[in-house]
Amino acid sequence: MTNSKRKFILPVLILSVFFITASAFADGLPTFQIMTEKWTPWQVVENGEVKGVAVDLLAAMLQKCGSGQTQKDMKMMPWARSYKYVQEKENTILFSMTRTEERENLFKWVGPIFQSTFYLMARKDGNIKISSAADIKKYKIGTIIDDVGEMLLKRLGVPADKWERVSKNEVNVQKLNAKRVDLVTGTEKGVKNNAKTLGIDPDQFEPVFTLQTSDISYALYKGTPDAVINQLQKALDDLRADGTVDNLKNKYEHLIKK
Length: 258
Known about the structure:
Oligomer: single chain
CATH architecture of the largest domain: 3-Layer(aba) Sandwich
Number of helices: 10
Structural class: alpha/beta
Shape: globular
Strand content: 25-35%
Number of domains: 2
Radius of gyration: 22 Å
CATH superfamily of the largest domain: Periplasmic binding protein-like II
Helix content: 40-55%
CATH topology of the largest domain: D-Maltodextrin-Binding Protein, domain 2
Order of helices and strands: HEEEHEHEEHEHEHEHEHHH
Largest sheet: 8 strands, mixed
């Protein structure tokens, strides 16, 4: 074989290996470490099994992409720990996460799953009236560590010494019920569902200030290849178009009505 032929064949072989490898990767998904936290009806635990609208939807997306992972591969974890972990470790997914300007470049995103409005919630008998961010600074506020509520309070200039930080939503509801905090951050349904679970009258709580309405999505490690993101996004879009998302919402409607 002449030197000129060798010079021609070698680049072709290198390019062939590259395209075969890229194609094989694009056609399949990695094995993910998948983390979530309780948020009725999107993520719940029933009889020791993780389920809910966002859980079942992600499982359907993975299946549509040819992955063998299922709901059994999704783990309930404290939010602050998993939030940090998905920023550091490849092949990780955390859901359901509020997509904000502050978080935009920390993760890759697939969504939205749904939209949700976050409030400051108070006891009705507290007669708390808030018309501006300045009013918020008068109160002690229950927050979740590294949750969107803290991010939104920081954006409004509410100092961190007004926050009472905990790792679980249920703890905040208990503290609000016991008048150990004046306000808590969260969605209205989320706070009231936590109250029901704890045996606390949910009707004693009300939203007193709207923080933000946001898209809620799946967050992935920021180094996740775009080919993987595109596969998952297409799967989500297809499942929304064929009615699967609406069917899942109907399936878990009973969790809201409990």
